[in-house]
Amino acid sequence: MNIKEYISSGIIESYVFGLASSEEKTEFERLAAEHPELREARNAFERLLEEQLQLNIVTPPAFIKSKFLSSIDLEENKTAPSFSGGKGSIPPVIVGTSDNRNDGYAIGKAMVIRKDFSRFMAAAAVILLLMSTALNFYFFNRYKEYNDKYQALIATQTDLATHNQILQTRLLEYEKTVEMMKDPAMYIVKMPAIATSPDPLSATTIYWDTRTKDVYLAVNRLPTPESGKQYQLWAMVDGKPVDAGVFDLKDGAGMTKMKNIQKAEAFAITLEKRGGSPTPSFDKLYVMGKV
Amino acid sequence: MSLLKSRDSKAFSYLYDNYSGSLYTIIVQLVDDLEIANDVLQEVFINIWRKIESYDPVKGRLFTWMLNIARNASIDTLRSRSFQNAQKNQPLQENSDWPDGGKLTSVNSVNFDNIGLKKVIERLKKEHRVLIDLAYFKGYTHEEISQIEDIPLGTVKTRIRNALMQLREYLK
Questions:
Q1: Whole-model pTM above 0.90?
Q2: Is B59 near chain A, with CB under 8 Å?
């Protein structure tokens, strides 16, 4: 065989690109061992290819390197005990796949293992996702339930607080009333119903502070006025009625502070139009008390 | 070389730094999908690490050996059933059944035809280019190509040889 012709037949390129058939490969390797010029030519083409393929490259993402290095670390530790027998020996993984059929076989196998693993991982991920979803749902329901309960408690608490405030206010009123009733400086004027009173059971009481001349009124009993009407207190000063303020009936025994009256001979209560009248309507006189 | 054979991780780190780019480029051109190329590249380096014992410098340069591992891994991936199915489901990028009008494929599939081996192959005559594409990039045997293209086996062989020699000229 003319080796020069062989060299320029395209077999070198075929061989280097991995496109030669196995017979061609065997022949090429045999001839290359015999002919240094064939090896030289192959080497030259390999260098050319290598140089050219190193130009204009696409850089792979950096994470692949670390993944690669960590996986060989892992494999190194895994296989280390099994080939402590000899330094140059090939780990078992490789013995089985050492190829006649070129390098593709072992790679294929590795891919399959990898694929199984990634399938397993995918399945595990799906299961975890489902579990997480279920838990999310469960906890969300629990959260909603507790949130509702919490809201209900807040509402109850607000009600209680409001109620408590009402009670407190009322208690303060009672305390104030009791204080006044006990106060020795208070001048008490009892105001029973008069003979012509529209309600013969009516009764009120005036607590008149002798120091400040403030007038407080406690309603013992008065009928509820019709709408648009209001009770009015009068002080009889030198025989003339003086307005001492209007008032509404209210719950409990609280006292209503009326107008300050410096002096009076008597107090009377009439029913007037809402807001009070300049002069009393004596036909609607309910109670009266002399000082 | 002896450091590589003793599986020194620093040596492999160096190897990776020097060759991952060129191997990645060829893998991307072969599988035409960046994400798959990432997986294949990692696989290729793990295989280089595993099989370094079987590398014989007499038969060729280390780069050639690694290049062939990368090519074989890429073609195996292309041929694995799941990948074939995926390819069948998205035959062309104008598949309008996809919600995004077929953009799904173009996310990972980037055109790298203007660099490396692909760029050189683009310069070949069409009849040569088709055969190199089938043989080198798709991994078909000469016999398969003869059937696919309906050309006599001898013609396939001759054309591929001629194409490869032309390729060598373009590489220079």
A1: no
A2: yes
